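Preliminary data (for renewal application), NAP complex.
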Amino acid sequence: MSSVLQVAVIGSGPSGFYAAEALLRGHADCRVDVFERLCTPHGLVRYGVAPDHQKLKQVAAVFDGVAKDARLRMFAGVDVGRQVTIAELRARYHAVVVATGSPVGRRLGVPNETLPQVHSSASFVSWYNGHPDHAALTPELGGGTAVVVGNGNVALDVCRLLVRPYDELRSSDIPEPMLPAFRRRGIRQVHLVGRSGVNATKFTFKEFRQLVEQSDLRVELPQATGWPESAWAGAGSDDAARVAQWLREHAARTASDGDGPRVSLWFHAAPQAFCGEGALTGVRLAPTAPGADVPAELACELAVTCIGYERQPLPGLPEPSRPGPLPHRAGQVIDADGVEVPGLYVAGWAKRGPTGIIGTNRADSYETVQTLLAALPELMVRPLAADEPVHALLDARGVWPLSYADWLQIDRWERSRGAELGKPREKAISRDDVDAALGISTAIAEAQ
Ligand code: NAP
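Predicted structure:
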């Protein structure tokens, strides 16, 4: 029986890497194998954080530091649930930590949500970040007006990307195949639509200011005339109060002057349907509060819903009856009867839902690992199928994972392509890009 604690972490985003860090720090005698479906690691940092927020992306250096530990191995390009099952992992590791995030866009559930130019933030944000699953999206940015639904930071990111001057986006890490859509962009007006009040937004003030204080932007609050005192105060967080205060002070500065793009903020407005036959022509709205002055319809050619995310169910997990995070007790997964599943843990957005900044995942993952390490005596007596280690199993199935050393090589390739283009990196999107970065010729790649 092995005396080394062997843990599989599924997902190489922030929660996966923080869980790995906590394990490596918390238990000298352990080995951590991080499984990743894509060929490249870092999840939300690479594919969720806005491409013009490079400072936030620098947290990837922390993950590089964690991966330097010889006790960590990465298996990228392995689809857990399809190429190797949860049961097969649980038979080979004392513990499995699910850190797969919440990659699916929540749906409004209103008519015509599937019209071609209605996108969820999950696909739109992933598209401009070069996520291979969404690279084929063709959002039409050439129209004049967009509606962005939601009053959270993702809605701010999307809105900013829709109005930020092209020259500034050019030097972000939006990949070259996606940039022409921004160059041809014709958007002059964005309607930012929230179902709650001006006093209850989910924006953080810093991110809000970054948008509304863009020098050429005209910000408009079409409904504000005559709002009672109570509309401005009280309901939300400190950030919400500061946002409301800013809007109150600037509401008078209507969008009459200048020729920059205009952002109009609508509150207490809930989408009822997307309009158009074959092509999007508008969003129908209804008020969510008595007397709210909400237009019946906002005309637009593009709509992006930024209303949160759902977890992708993973075969082999005790899935809850309704979509949402995996039920758990301090990070240990529990089944439908509320009973803890031995050796099965969860961290990050898969555990608590799509909330918080990247750093929030650190405390979250550390809590999960603390629970895991407290169960060491029971975990270490779980018999493992050591006769067929996971790499042999994958090898027999024709699955050849990429290692962290491979990623570092891809990273260097991306940075050097980026340097030639005056940007931080030019991302590898397709498998061909990955092979080129690794110097794998087509013939060898095909043989694999
Ligand atoms: P969020 O902050 O939870 O905002 C979601 C928004 O969607 C809310 O305004 C919510 O309205 C609205 N909404 C939800 N369901 C809706 C429905 N059925 N109809 C209409 N509106 C609906 O989520 P997020 O913007 O996706 O961000 C996720 C997390 O990542 C947040 O914690 C965020 O702060 C973080 N994040 C941080 C940064 C950064 O720090 N730069 C950037 C991006 C994201 P209600 O308020 O009325 O519920």
